[in-house]
Specification:
It contains four helices and six strands, in the order H-H-E-E-H-E-E-E-E-H. It has a six-stranded mixed beta sheet with strand order 2-1-6-5-4-3.
């Protein structure tokens, strides 16, 4: 399997809101770290639940402008998730505002081509500012 093609397929599944497609090429015991919130998701099912939070937040969320770089069994991806917040997110009500979430990921794959570890770095603070849920920091 080509790790870039595998990750691209997972991102395409995300844009279709296809949870089984997102985790199809992950080992069941994959560990994914959500660094923005200090989370450790210990399985593919836990990661799917985490992804569902974004589908609840935005009925039109999609990944755009993705770039992929591979070295050995690791793939780095940089992309934007765009949509409109028409549902709740992290306890905040729908704002009906459009958003752009900047994301970087690093995934490690085993010899069979399955994801075994992921690191997600999303600008959640920037997202919450765009949605009007937290104020922008004051400039010095």
């Amino acid at each position: 399997m080509d790790p870039i093609a595998t990750l691209r397929a997972a991102h395409e599944a995300f844009s279709r809101h296809d949870l089984p497609g997102i985790i199809r090429d992950m080992r069941r015991d994959v560990v994914v770290y959500g660094h923005a919130a200090g989370q450790r998701l210990p399985s593919a099912d836990a990661f799917a639940q985490f992804m569902n939070m974004y589908f609840t937040m935005s009925s039109d969320i999609a990944i755009v402008d993705a770039e992929y770089f591979a070295h050995g069994n690791k793939v780095v991806a940089q992309f934007r998730a765009v949509g409109t917040q028409d549902g709740p997110f992290l306890g905040f009500p729908a704002s009906d505002r459009p958003f752009t979430l900047d994301v970087a990921e690093i995934w490690t794959f085993d010899d069979e081509g399955y994801a075994i570890e992921g690191h997600n770095y999303a600008d959640t603070l920037g997202l919450l500012i765009q949605l009007g849920h937290v104020p922008a920091p004051a400039l010095a």
